[in-house]
Design goal:
By secondary structure, the chain is an alpha/beta fold. The protein has two helices and 14 strands, in the order αβββββββββββββαβ. It starts with a helix and ends with a strand.
């Protein structure tokens, strides 16, 4: 069997490109939440979860954080409170009308919309700092199932680490250090 010279010459470049792509993907962090800690390969930090604990069968409004492994799909930050974070994860500056639909009967359930909006939606532009920086956890997004829960984020914890409405929260400085380590393919594994 004879292999074309062009193919033989291209093999090192193909292997290099494949190796580089694999190395780049491998450099993004995956996170894990377990027993009050957010864990990654470089360390761990205290974390708060939903007032309903960790649940295998999350429902809208139950205050639980969903167990399982989910992608970290994008992020948001408050440009009036911080510089744009350096990250390969898709990041967007929040604006005052941004909100997340939590009405299971609405066609945009578990999606970002602009206020005013005809269905109930959680404002993202808050007076406190919890949404100054956040990563969207890809729970109940593909496909979206009405009533299974919405607006699950990795965000900044309140100073007293009080429970969230279902998100995972860490100290501001921890999240600022983590966001640059996240990228396409990053996941968060949540276990109780």
């Amino acid at each position: 069997m004879r292999i074309a010279r062009r193919v033989v010459l291209a093999l090192p470049a193909m292997f290099s490109a494949a190796g580089l792509a694999k190395a780049v993907l491998a450099s993004y962090q995956n996170l894990e939440y377990y027993d009050g800690r957010l864990i990654w390969s470089g360390g761990s930090a205290r974390a708060a979860v939903g007032r309903g604990g960790i649940a295998a069968h999350k429902k809208e409004g139950d205050g639980a954080t969903p167990s399982g492994t989910y992608p970290l799909v994008s992020g948001f930050y408050r440009a009036d409170r911080m510089a744009a974070p350096r990250s390969v994860l898709a990041m967007r500056a929040l604006s005052p009308p941004d909100a997340w639909v939590d009405d299971p009967a609405d066609a945009n359930y578990n999606r970002l919309v602009s206020l005013p909006y005809p269905a109930h939606a959680e404002p993202m532009w808050l007076d406190d700092a919890v949404y100054d920086l956040l990563a969207v956890i890809g729970y109940n997004m593909d496909p979206v199932v009405p009533g299974m829960g919405s607006a699950i984020f990795l965000h900044i914890a309140r100073p007293d680490f009080s429970p969230t409405a279902g998100c995972i929260a860490v100290e501001r400085e921890v999240l600022i250090r983590l966001v640059p380590l996240l990228g396409p393919g990053s996941t968060i594994a949540i276990r109780g």
